[in-house]
Amino acid sequence: FVNNLPNKNINFEVKDFKLYLNCDNIKASINGLNAEDFPIIPKVKNDSVLTINSKMFKNSLNYVINSSAISDARPEISSIYIKINPDQIKFIATDSFRLAHKTIFVLSDDNKEKIKINFEKSRNIILPLRTAGELLRILGDQNDDVKIIIDQNQILFDLDNTQLISRLVEGNYPDYEAIIPKSSETKCYLSKNDLEESIKLAGCFSSKLNDITMKTNSEKSQMEIFSNNSEYGNHHAKIDSEIKGKDIAIVFNWHYFLDGLKNIDEDELILEFNGDQKPAVIKPAKNADFFYILMPIRNS
């Protein structure tokens, strides 16, 4: 409303829980409420404090936030799971179809000056997705420290002149470690850029299920990508790949696959498979701080 007023002085007056505005020939009144009814800002005990570079914290949230579910029925997965240990901070998100996992190695040379943890025991918190999204907006492009105070069921983010207080999600986060493969039957080394371009092209010819098929050919050292749409046509591409183990043909949602690729910062990546019905792992070839697990589309 105010943005559309003339570029002139605006007079404000508050009376009987109403705000009266007067600008040139325009008058308006806005209904309000008793200020005493505004919720009291809760106090958070500062027994557990994490101080971390805001850019580092924001980047870590961005790695995983798109893999979180949007669900009122299951708030524990409509969230970001954060595990804080003296040597590592892990960020995990899943919607049951995919899982993103980002690790900050606290004691590494690059990070040890940017992180301070005042507690020795590990703390695990479930941060609501809405809070995570609002926090990303507040952090913006800042590169200062953010002080994070963790209470039993609340959390406070303190950054310069801004504080964000949120309740934490109660309950237990799903046992995500149970779905992380301990080994693989097939391992592929290939270029992220080549794979990303091929998947985007294949997506143009996918069906309503957004499905594409990936097939390894170890004899020719190639990964083949297929898609077919009865209305538009079909697509077939080949990209160079070093393949170790059994050949495989597996079907994925191409949108979900791209979500995992976009968070990998290096060009060489590794795909790990355990048959066409079990989750696959997507990760950078050199950096061990991120991996992405994706369930295949099961063949009927």
UniProtKB/TrEMBL annotation:
<dbReference type="GO" id="GO:0003677">
    <property type="term" value="F:DNA binding"/>
</dbReference>
<keyword id="KW-0239">DNA-directed DNA polymerase</keyword>
<keyword id="KW-0963">Cytoplasm</keyword>
<feature type="domain" description="DNA polymerase III beta sliding clamp central">
    <location>
        <begin position="51"/>
        <end position="175"/>
    </location>
</feature>
<dbReference type="InterPro" id="IPR022637">
    <property type="entry name" value="DNA_polIII_beta_cen"/>
</dbReference>
<dbReference type="InterPro" id="IPR001001">
    <property type="entry name" value="DNA_polIII_beta"/>
</dbReference>
<feature type="domain" description="DNA polymerase III beta sliding clamp C-terminal">
    <location>
        <begin position="179"/>
        <end position="298"/>
    </location>
</feature>
<dbReference type="GO" id="GO:0005737">
    <property type="term" value="C:cytoplasm"/>
</dbReference>
<dbReference type="GO" id="GO:0003887">
    <property type="term" value="F:DNA-directed DNA polymerase activity"/>
</dbReference>
<keyword id="KW-0808">Transferase</keyword>
<dbReference type="GO" id="GO:0006271">
    <property type="term" value="P:DNA strand elongation involved in DNA replication"/>
</dbReference>
<keyword id="KW-0548">Nucleotidyltransferase</keyword>
<dbReference type="InterPro" id="IPR046938">
    <property type="entry name" value="DNA_clamp_sf"/>
</dbReference>
<keyword id="KW-0235">DNA replication</keyword>
<comment type="similarity">
    <text>Belongs to the beta sliding clamp family.</text>
</comment>
<dbReference type="GO" id="GO:0009360">
    <property type="term" value="C:DNA polymerase III complex"/>
</dbReference>
<keyword id="KW-0238">DNA-binding</keyword>
<dbReference type="GO" id="GO:0008408">
    <property type="term" value="F:3'-5' exonuclease activity"/>
</dbReference>
<dbReference type="InterPro" id="IPR022635">
    <property type="entry name" value="DNA_polIII_beta_C"/>
</dbReference>
<protein>
    <submittedName>
        <fullName>Polymerase III subunit beta protein</fullName>
    </submittedName>
</protein>
<dbReference type="Pfam" id="PF02768">
    <property type="entry name" value="DNA_pol3_beta_3"/>
</dbReference>
<dbReference type="Pfam" id="PF02767">
    <property type="entry name" value="DNA_pol3_beta_2"/>
</dbReference>
